[in-house]
Each structure stands twice: as C-alpha cells, then as structure tokens.
Specification:
It contains 13 helices and 14 strands. The chain is of the alpha+beta class. The chain has a domain of 301 residues: Beta Barrel (Porin), CATH 2.40.160. Strands 1-2-3-4-5-6-7-8-9-10-11-12-13-14 form a 14-stranded antiparallel β-barrel. Helix 2 runs parallel beside helix 4 and helix 5 packs antiparallel against helix 6. The chain starts with 9 loop residues before the first helix and ends with a strand.
C-alpha cells in the first residue's frame, strides 16, 4: 500500500462516525397490519413526527409510552433505535434494534438501522453482515454503498469495495466525497495510483468546502508522489557458508551399470563459502511503465574441491507495464538476460534468455501469473570435442502458470503451479519434453517476524531419442527418462540495518532409468544478506 493509505486515521474515522448517526430511513419503517390504529401506534406516529423535526426528547417519551402499552411493538422499537442512534447512544440503539430484529428477522429496514448502530459503535464485524444483507436487496439505497464499501475496504477487500462504491448512490455531498476518497485509496492499494489520483480529485470537487478538504489534498499529493519517491536503485549483497555432500554430482551406487563404481571414486563432499551481488536500476519510470537494467554475480568456493568452483555473471533488462482489467490490477513484463557461467575459472556455458509474463490480482487474496520463456544455451566443449550426439547446446522453450494464495498482507503465502518445457538439443542424447509441478508455502511467525518457507518441485523429463552411449552394456536400446525432485526448507530472520539471516537446506534427488544420472545431493547453507 502507498505511504499514507492508512490516513483513515482519527480524523477520517470521526467523519465516518458522524455520518453513521445520520440515520438512513429510506426504506419504509416496519408497519402494523391492523386496519384500526391502536393506542400504541398513535404514540409511534407522534414520535415519528418529533423524530423528523429532531425533537428527540419528545420522540423518546412517546416511544416509551408506546412500549409500555405494547412491549414488542416492532415499529416503536425501530424508531427507538433510530432516536438513540441520532443521539449518539449506539449501545442503547443496539439493544432496542436487536429486540426489533428478533421480532421481525426478515425486515430490511430493521437490519439496516441495526447495522448502522453497530457501525456507530465501531463494531464493524457485526455491522458488515447486516449491511451486506440490505445491500444485496437494495444496492442503490442512499448512502448504503458507502458504508458497505468502507467495511470491505477495512477488510482489505479492495476490489469488492470498489464495486460497492460504484453501485451505491449518495445525495449528501460529504458522503459523495468520502466515497470518492476511499475509492481512491482502494485503487492505490491495488497499484493504480493514476486512477487513484483521479478519484481523489473528484472527492475534492464533490465538497470543496468540507473540513476534510485539507487532509484529502495531502493524501492526493501522497498518492501522486508515491511512485516518484520509490528508489530507482535496489541492491543486495549475500555472504555465507555451506556444506555440499555431492559437489561433483556423482551417481548413486548401482550395480546395473559397470561405469558407476568408477565415477564414485573421486571425493565429492566439500564445505565452502559463497558470495552474491545484485543491483537493479529503474532508468525509466512513468505512471504505467517501468524499465530497468540489472547485474548480478554469484560465486562459490569449495574448500575441498576447488576445481568445482562456480562463478556466474548475469546482465538483464526488463520493461513492466501496469494496468487494470476492470477493477483488477494487472501487469505484464518483458525481460532479456544474458549470463556466463564459469567452472573453475573456465567458461562453461553462455545463456540468452527472453521471457514474458503477466500477472493478475484478484482482491487481496489471489494472484495468478502466466509466463513463457525462450533460452539459448551454448556450452564450451572440451578438446577433442565429444561425439555429435553428446553436444549439449540447446534451445529451450517453456510455458507455465502459478497461482498464489496470500494471507495477512503476504506474511503467509501458498503457491502452486505447472510448467511445460521443451529442450531442442544439438546432441540427440539431451533433447527432452518436460513437465514441472511446483508448490510452496511461507509462514511468518508472530515473534521475531521469522519467515519459514518450504518449496517443492518435481521435473519429469522424457528424452526424445534413444541414448547412443548408455547403458554401456546395451547402448542404443534405452530412451532416458528422469524424475528430479527438489525440496528447499528455509528460515529467514530479519535483522536491523536491512540485514537478513537465512538458514537453508536443499535436497535434490534425480531418479533416472539410466543409472549414471541417478544422484542425490544435499546442501546446507547459512547466509547473511544486506539489501538496499
């Protein structure tokens, strides 16, 4: 949310409550069915006249006389609640209206007045279902759309809040102003500051002499300036240590393949250190478009197996376009990245990656994203070059989608998704069609803001050609099929000065019908990061 969006603070709450006591009697009040007016109804009729003339003490006296004669008279209880609401005595109003509600549970006028009484008492949880009930039946009832929209806004259901504001009607200029104002705040929360500023400008025009004009103007300035105040430069530095029990990715023991024991002989465990750097700069930014360039570096040093040290340099550029589909916030992003990975200071592979993604938010809870990606991989082959079937250069295409369930302002997240990728490799032994299932959960503990994460994915790869080399006992007889399972457990502890301490456990299990590619790898790491 933008800075200042919580300006619903004391002044705005006071304005809201002052409106709540202006009782909306647009629906017909409950009426008796008798053709002859009873003595109690005579007193109620007099009370109605006094109420409309704002002679509240006289109205109370008449209503008490009516209830002495007929204690469960619904119309008398209804107007008693209305008078108490006007007198800013919501507890007394609630008591009277609950009695009326028990006698006439289907009466929308009683439900409306009881909802307003709970609203005035700031018991929003009880006010919401009552006002929602009336809103479903009479959405254009004067001022009702504002109350329902405000309650939805408090629940951070910004999309449905906008729907209520737009469906509702208001004749009072101050209610019109507040409706526009909270519409602007909802749009800002949905990531649409331009449309938010327009709504807030309309709020100022709705009631230019209102005592709320000055704070609303300050909010408009905050909305307009929010994106311009965002940092154009973001950066992160990570340092840490790790232990890897299979640095060389040697295969698991398997007697079916004679070459496996030879591959398992070298040492394959090592502790080590890692360093990561990342910087992104937004070189262009407008209301709807942002363009960035970035650079990142990642390196590992294996104390016991330095020949497997890895360094990677990546440069990227991206353009993001923010918009809305109806009242739903949406954005699309196009990205290009180029990276070079070195193994023991020797170039190992170059990759060109082009990706496009789109995201759509559904209220404060749901976010869906679709992505498509093309990647070109060019490996540096040893001399002499391997057989043509073993050339790993490839074009990889991927398409997928992921859905996020978000709770408590993203402190808790559940995600799941699916990806399909196709690798068209120069060497026939490496081309495949893959299916990836991804899932994850994040939970933030209330103490210390400790974030716990678990991510899982399974990548199923069906290779498109019979392998020309493996198994060594029967070459050209088996088409490779792999099932790669990855589990990541991570705990992140935020620290002062933009520091984060993370402990992570990574488990990778690759199961293949070719024993050479069967392996298990476990990595434990402790990382300290600083972000700007």
């Amino acid at each position: 949310m933008i800075p200042g969006a919580g300006f619903g603070g004391r002044r705005m709450r006071g304005a809201v409550l002052s409106l709540a006591v202006v009782v909306v009697i647009a629906l017909a009040a409950p009426t008796g069915a008798a053709a002859q007016m009873t003595e109690a109804e005579v007193f109620v009729s007099q009370a109605v006249l006094d109420f409309e003339a704002k002679r509240y003490d006289e109205a109370l006296a008449s209503l008490r006389r009516a209830l002495e004669i007929e204690p469960d008279h619904v119309e008398a209880l209804f107007y008693l609640g209305a008078v108490y609401t006007a007198l800013k005595r919501p507890d007394d109003a609630i008591a009277a209206l609950e009695r009326a509600r028990s006698r006439a549970p289907a009466d929308t006028a009683v439900a409306l007045q009881l909802g307003l009484a709970y609203f005035a008492a700031r018991d929003y949880d009880r006010a919401a279902p009552l006002l929602e009930e009336v809103f479903r039946a009479r959405p254009t009832l004067d001022h009702l759309g504002y109350y329902v929209g405000f309650l939805r806004y408090r629940q951070k259901d910004y999309r449905r809040a906008l729907e209520a504001f737009r469906q509702g009607r208001a004749t009072d200029p101050e209610v019109q102003q507040l409706t526009r104002f909270y519409s602007g705040l909802a749009l800002a929360a949905l990531g649409l500051p331009s449309r938010a500023a327009t709504e807030i400008d309309e709020a100022l025009r709705a009631a230019p002499g209102s005592p709320l004009t000055a704070p609303i103007e300050r909010m408009r300035d905050a909305v307009v300036a929010a994106r311009s105040r965002e940092r154009r430069l973001s950066a992160e530095v990570r340092v840490g240590g790790f232990h890897d029990d299979n640095v060389a990715v040697i295969p698991d023991q398997d007697r079916r393949e004679p070459i496996v024991p030879l591959l398992r002989r070298p040492r394959h465990e090592s502790s080590g250190e890692l360093l990561g750097l990342r910087a992104d700069y937004a070189w262009y930014r407008s209301e709807a478009v942002e363009a960035t360039v970035g650079y990142s570096f990642f390196g590992t040093y294996n104390n016991d197996l330095p020949s497997f040290n890895v360094t990677d340099h990546l440069a990227s550029t991206a353009v993001t376009y923010r918009t809305a589909i109806g009242s739903l916030p949406a954005q699309t992003t196009g990205q290009y990245a180029f990276d070079i990975l070195f193994l023991d200071d020797d170039e190992f592979v170059q990759r060109h990656t082009v990706a496009a993604s789109g995201a759509l938010g559904f209220g404060d809870r749901h976010l869906s994203q679709a992505v498509t990606r093309y990647q070109r991989k060019d490996f540096v082959e040893d001399t002499p070059r391997p057989a043509p079937e073993e050339i790993r250069d490839a074009d990889n295409w991927m398409i997928g989608a992921v859905h996020l369930l978000r709770f408590a302002e993203d402190r808790h997240v559940v995600r799941f998704g699916y990806q399909f990728d196709y690798e068209d490799a120069s060497g026939r032994n490496y081309g495949y069609r893959g299916h990836r299932l991804v899932a994850g959960v994040q939970y933030t503990l209330p103490w210390l803001a400790l974030r716990l994460r678990y991510d899982f994915d399974v990548h199923l790869r069906d290779y498109t050609a019979v392998n020309t080399i493996l198994p060594t006992t029967r070459p050209r007889s088996v088409r490779r099929a792999d099932e790669e399972l990855t589990n990541v457990v991570r705990a992140e502890l935020p620290l002062p000065w933009n520091l984060t301490l993370a402990a992570e456990y990574l488990s990778t299990i690759n199961q293949s019908n070719l024993a050479v590619y069967d392996y298990t790898r476990n990595v434990v790491s402790l990382i300290l990061s600083w972000s700007y």
